[in-house]
Amino acid sequence: MSQYKYDFVGSFLRPAYLRKARAAFNNGTLSYEDLKQQEDNAIRDLVAKEINAGYHVVTDGEFRRATWHLDFIWNFNGVEHVTERGNDTFNGEVALIDSVHLNGKVSVSHHPFVDHFKFVKALCPEGVQAKQTMPAPGQFYAIFTGQEEIENTKKYYPDLAELRKDIADSYVKVINELYEAGCRIVQFDDCTWGGFVNPQIATGLTGLTLEELPAYMDTLVNLNNAVIDRAPEDLTINTHICRGNYHSTYFSSGAYDAVAPYVFAKEHVDTFYLEFDDERSGGFEPLKYVPKDKNVVLGLITTKTPFLEDEDRIKDRLKKASAYKDLDHLSLSPQCGFASCEIGNKLSEAQQWKKLELVKHIAEDVWA
Question: Can you say whether residue 297 is alpha, beta or left, with left for phi > 0 and alpha for psi between -120 and 50 degrees?
């Protein structure tokens, strides 16, 4: 277990000048070189702030992405970037993000996220590590085998086992390139499980019956493990699970009970980053499925509102969680990133840093 008992998920609010630059690039009035310079400047500033805030594992804030997952997927061969918007609804708000379709067999050449990682790593002094976040292999697979995409996907993959193999092989290639670049921490962001906690959403997304879902969930776990088990031995692979995070709204609600016997019990990750910031997440009892040697980072601090949580209440919740998972294997973090998509959540950059200050303060007090 890391000596650091406080952490964060990965994404940060984009500075106003960076959002303006990306909008200009998208409408053709700013060159890619000028956009990249603005991204570089914003990331240098962010990493310095992360380190100054006392965090020992940093990210680039996902500042080079429009969304937490699609930018990664768009850079695979066989994937079409579709500019159709308004497919998903988050608690009544339509998410204005693009989409994907398969237009061939899945493979990967040189993934740009490797270069993005190298840039961040070069900014890290001794004692600070950069982690690379990306959607989980199972998340990738779920997108293309969901009810809306399966018909198109089967044009290229009549046998879905071949799709799983191509996804796994491609992920292994990207992870090996990241490892060669010096990466030692990868985080699989995996919102499929956050959707599957709700039976209605699970059946709606997949087109499967409740009786068919267990086999599908095993398929997702097995795909993730097929990648994890081929990773270098000293590469830490963690996973983050939440129920959606778009402009301070959410996609799903429900306790982890329905998915815990699958993802918690069977996935070969080192650490689970779990959303527990409000009543939508249910109780801590499903933590009993997490093997004793694995760690859990409890997302008890919300990124969806600017209001700071009561310290005593957070400490009490940590105590309650420790009834199911030993405190030595627990840590504290926000429940998700501050800007899973470029639009970001409804709080200011100053309030964002206050949240992280609170996380660190509580953790240092609890695990003193």
Answer: beta
The angle at the Cα of 276, spanning 72 to 96, to the nearest 5 degrees, equals 40
- Residue 271 has φ and ψ, to the nearest 5°, of -145, 145
Residue type, 300: L
pLDDT digits (tens, 9 = 90+) for 51-90: 999 999 999 999 999 898 899 999 999 999 887 655 555 4
Residue 352's H or E segment, with its range, is helix 349-366
pLDDT digits (tens, 9 = 90+) for 267-320: 999 999 999 988 778 899 999 999 999 999 999 999 999 999 999 999 999 999
**pLDDT confidence of 243, banded at 50, 70, 90?**
confident
108 contact partners, CB below 8 Å, separation of at least 6: 75, 76, 77, 170, 173, 174
What distance in Å separates the CA atoms of residue 223 and residue 74, rounded to the nearest whole number? 20
- DSSP H/E element including 165: helix 160-180
Tell me how far the alpha carbon of residue 204 is from its chain's centroid.
22
For the chain, how big is the Rg over CA atoms in Å? 19
**Per this entry, what is the length of the chain?**
368
Distances (CA, A) of 136 to 194, 221, 319, 345, 363: 13, 10, 30, 23, 28
DSSP state of 327: G
How many Å apart are CA 66 and CA 246, to the nearest integer?
Answer: 12
How far apart CA 26 and CA 79 sit, in angstroms, is 20
What six digits make up the tokens of 339? Answer: 């800007």
Is residue 99 helix, strand or coil?
A: strand
Nearest to 96 by CA among 85, 106, 112, 84: 85
Whole-angstrom distance, CA of residue 179 vs CA of residue 342: 27
In angstroms, the CA 43 to CA 315 distance is 33
pTM: 0.94
Give the integer Cα–Cα distance in Å for 140 and 356: 30
- SS3 assignment, position 208: coil
